[in-house]
Write a structure and sequence with these properties.
The structure holds three protein chains of three kinds. Chain A is mainly alpha-helical. Chain A has a single domain, classed as MetI-like fold (Orthogonal Bundle), CATH 1.10.3720.10. Chain A is built from eleven helices and no strands. In chain A, helix 4 (45-79) packs antiparallel against helix 9 and helix 7 runs antiparallel to helix 9 (155-192). Chain A is elongated, with a radius of gyration of 23 Å. Chain B is an alpha/beta fold. The two termini of chain B are 37 Å apart. Chain B has a six-stranded mixed beta sheet, sandwiched between helices. A four-stranded antiparallel beta sheet of chain B has the order 2-1-4-5, with helices on one face. Chain C is an all-alpha fold. Chain C has one domain: MetI-like (MetI-like fold). Chain C has eleven helices and no strands. Chain C has helices spanning 2-24, 35-47, 50-82, 84-97, 102-113, 117-128, 130-141, 145-153, 158-196, 200-210, 214-253. The model of chain C has no long low-confidence stretch (mean pLDDT 88). Classes of the chains: A mainly alpha, B alpha/beta, C mainly alpha. The structure holds adenosine-5'-diphosphate and magnesium ion. Adenosine-5'-diphosphate (ADP) is lined by residues 14, 21, 23, 41, 43-49 of chain B. Chain A: This is NitT/TauT family transport system permease protein.
């Protein structure tokens, strides 16, 4: 009985119910209840889907741009001494600059279109990727490098066949951080540089006092974020299962 | 002579994924005060599990454990453990001295007294000058000695040792064997030593318990009378040492899956 | 020595790169001013008191917010560790709220809470509390079982076990969560300032950008970087205090 009562779903349901009751008592569009939000979700459904499509498209583009440039750069910084020596403090310095602070400057150079937003997203995703790639490559087990040399691999082959796979678990962690940063910054950039996308939708509807629609947008973002997290976790299990299995084996030994 | 530690009908079944896994089946034995008992058995047969049950860290599925006549449910005062995974059993955020002091918490000593005793014990295990080092600054053998010093610090009547010397080189190992025996005698402690090394089991003990493969029972108790003083060269050449070693090795070989007739 | 040398080197390198771009004149100077111009712009903003005011507004919001949110997050993590039903509820809430960017709630929060400190408190708490909470819960649940056995052999009860074993062992992971939360607290404050457009560095950045006062934009970005580094250094100091052993251990292992 107590179990059922404290189940998260039950608590959530109770919270929604309480919210609905307060909303019914207040009877003003400025305090929408869950039913109003559901109604807005239904009414604006097609538009919401279109807007989140823009958001996701740019998030993916920014993430891809960052991954394709920053993972190789980070690995190289971790393997090549001189590059790491100058590169790492430079990256550490850039990392203290929050992504939204770059928006005004990017706007001056690239306007308010797709390119500007993708650049800011890429910058946000780049930081965890490059830092973790360098760290992973630097902490590569020395034996692995020796194995590469004993097999007569070239530097590039060692990077591709040994450094990259053994850095994968750490890169996966970085990719997870970069992906959520990409989504967050994608929405934020739309609120700051408005043209389209879910962030722009949120901004407009809330400024027009359509709070039910604003909440509907937030619900949609939350759902998309949850799905994204699940997808990443599932692909990690699929591709990196060996890593987690060997880790649990280690803790059990 | 009354027993210090007694186990009767001890069994342990883990709730495994497809089926439950029966590890221990009907283990009964006793350890007298100041007695040194070795336990040998194939790896994975449940030696660590048995020791955890004896220490009150793991509830047995059935059977009982008594220490000084009292039933064991929680870790009792007067029992110390040296864990198999010694490098993980030391607190990495505490120095060697503080790790040893942790073993004395139940004695209720003052700060200064505890500190002095910890340093004396570390000196006893040959770690004078390393009191302020952190575990990860010490070699494997040194970490093991810190773990032993911590177990000794509790002034326990019974020491449970889980393969304490498995990971050290041969020379250090011989030194630590003599050290352990010497300290146990000095502090008048009973010891239960788990090992998979038959030579070590015989060299150290007054009695050896030989375990079967899973589900694990006691195959045989081998009493020894090698005398109080042991010597790494002379003891190992004694006819009764060699006979006991022969008996145990034969027993273990017969219990191997290929040779198992039963 | 090298600890000091490397940031200086990085700064020098950054300045050299910057100046090289300026001299190569790939970008019009109007859009990419020389360092001297940026410094001048920064100095004049300081002379007018504009820079200090903005730094103070943004800094106080972000720093106070980060401190409060980390303490609350760790506290919730401790409470949830003691009460599994609370943990299930908080985990659900965390999963729902974590994907929501701070910016998304700002317009509505302005409407409900005005433009004062309550707005920033709300936004920072909503988005920043989860990293320290999740780190605390997961780290406390993952104590190495051998250490727990050691604690039981030493006669520790639940409270002593938490204090002497589980919490110290969890510190590195908890402080990683704290570090992350501290960076997002600053981000949340700046974004909120950009959207509300009243004061703080976020507001000033956009104001100067729309006025095309590019040297001042760059000077402000540099100031934000300094604020971010200062907050990062503070977290590092806390880390050394509570989990210095972990750094030293890793340094040896690597
Ligand atoms: N908590 C547990 N749950 C399930 N199986 C376990 C658990 N602990 C140990 N085992 C299993 O019990 C067996 C005996 O383990 P252990 O006592 O460590 O053996 P030994 O110390 O003799 O090598 C092993 O096969 C191990 O996988
Ligand atoms: Mg074992």
């Amino acid at each position: 009985m107590k179990r059922l009562f404290l189940h998260p779903a039950a608590v959530l349901l109770a919270a929604l119910l309480a919210w609905q009751i307060v909303a019914l008592v207040k009877t003003t569009p400025l305090f929408p209840g869950p039913l109003d939000v559901a109604g807005a979700l239904w009414d604006d459904g097609p538009r919401l889907i279109r807007e989140i499509g823009h958001t996701l498209r740019r998030a993916v583009a920014g993430f891809a741009l960052a991954a394709l440039t920053m993972i190789p750069l980070g690995l190289a910084m971790g393997r090549i001494r001189a590059l790491g020596f100058v590169g790492e403090p430079l990256v550490a310095m850039l990392a203290t600059l929050p992504p939204p602070a770059t928006v005004p400057v990017v706007m001056l150079f690239a306007g308010t279109g797709d390119l500007a937003k993708i650049l800011v997203i890429a910058y946000a995703a780049a930081i965890p990727l490059v830092i973790n790639a360098a760290e992973a490559a630097r902490n590569l087990h020395p034996m692995l490098g020796l194995v590469g040399r004993s097999l007569g691999l070239t530097r590039l082959e060692t990077l591709r066949l040994i450094a990259l796979p053994s850095a994968l678990p750490m890169l996966a962690v970085a990719a997870r951080m970069a992906a959520s940063a990409a989504l967050l910054v994608s929405i934020t950039s739309e609120m700051l540089l408005s043209t389209n996308g879910i962030g722009n939708y949120l901004q407009r509807e809330q400024e027009n006092f359509r709070l039910d629609a604003g909440l509907a947008g937030i619900v949609l973002i939350s759902v998309v974020g949850l799905i994204l997290n699940r997808l990443i976790a599932a692909s990690e299990r699929r591709w990196l299962g060996w890593h987690y299995q060997s880790r649990t084996a280690e803790t059990q030994a | 002579m009354t027993a210090l530690l007694e186990a009767g009908g001890l069994a342990k079944v883990f709730p495994g994924r497809p089926d439950p896994v029966e590890i221990l089946r009907d283990i009964s034995f006793a350890v007298a005060p100041e007695e040194f008992v070795s336990i040998v058995g194939p790896s994975g047969c449940g030696k660590t599990t048995l020791l955890m049950c004896l220490a009150g860290l793991l509830p047995p599925s059935s059977g009982w454990v008594r220490f000084r006549g009292q039933p064991v449910t929680d870790p009792p005062r007067g029992v110390s453990v040296v864990f198999q995974d010694y490098s993980r059993s030391l607190l990495p955020w505490k120095s060697a001295r503080e790790n040893v002091t942790l073993g004395m918490r139940r004695l209720g000593l003052g700060r200064a007294a505890a500190r002095d005793r910890a340093e004396a014990l570390l000196a006893e295990v040959g770690l004078a000058g390393f009191e302020g080092h952190f575990p990860w600054q010490l070699s494997g053998g040194m970490q093991q000695r810190v773990a032993i010093a911590r177990a000794l610090a509790a002034e326990s009547a019974l020491l449970l040792l889980d393969e304490p010397l498995a990971a050290v080189d041969a020379q250090t190992r011989a030194d630590l064997q003599d050290l352990l025996r010497g300290l146990a005698r000095k502090f008048r402690q009973a010891c239960l030593l788990v090992t998979h090394d038959v030579d070590e089991a015989v060299y150290m003990a007054d009695r050896v318990l030989v375990l079967s493969r899973r589900p694990t029972r006691i195959l045989r108790e081998v009493p020894l009378a090698l005398g109080a003083e042991r010597d790494q060269i002379d003891t190992r050449e004694r006819p009764d040492y060699l006979a006991a070693r022969h008996e145990i090795l034969t027993l273990i070989r017969a219990a191997r899956p290929e040779g198992a007739g039963a | 020595m090298t600890a000091l040398l490397r940031p200086v080197l990085a700064l020098g390198l950054l300045a050299a790169l910057w100046q090289a771009v300026v001299w190569a004149a790939v970008v019009p100077e109007r859009y990419f001013p020389p360092i001297a111009t940026v410094v001048q712009a920064g100095m004049s903003m300081i002379a007018r008191g504009q820079m200090q005011q903005a730094l103070f507004d943004t800094g106080s919001r972000a720093i106070l917010g980060a401190i409060a949110v980390n303490l609350i997050g760790i506290g919730l993590g401790l409470a949830a560790t003691g009460a599994p039903s609370l943990r299930r509820i908080l985990d659900t809430v965390a999963a729902i709220l974590q994907p929501v960017p701070p910016a998304a709630v700002v317009p509505m929060a302005v409407f409900a809470l005005g433009l004062g400190w309550k707005l920033y408190a709300f936004v920072v708490v909503l988005v920043t509390i989860w990293p320290p909470y999740l780190a605390t819960v997961s780290a406390l649940a993952a104590t190495n079982p051998v250490l727990l056995s050691v604690g039981r052999m030493a006669g520790f009860g639940p409270v002593a076990m938490l204090w002497h074993i589980r919490l110290p062992a969890a510190m590195p992971e908890i402080l990683a969560g704290v570090r992350y939360a501290t960076t997002i607290a600053l981000i949340a404050v700046i974004v909120s300032e950009m959207i509300t457009g009243r004061d703080g560095i976020g507001f000033l950045l956009f104001q100067k950008a729309f006025a095309i006062r590019i040297p001042e934009v760059f000077a402000l970005m540099f100031a934000v970087g300094l604020l971010g580094s200062a907050m990062g250094l503070a977290v590092s100091a806390v880390y050394r205090g509570f989990a210095g052993w972990h750094l030293a251990q890793r340094g040896r292992a690597a």
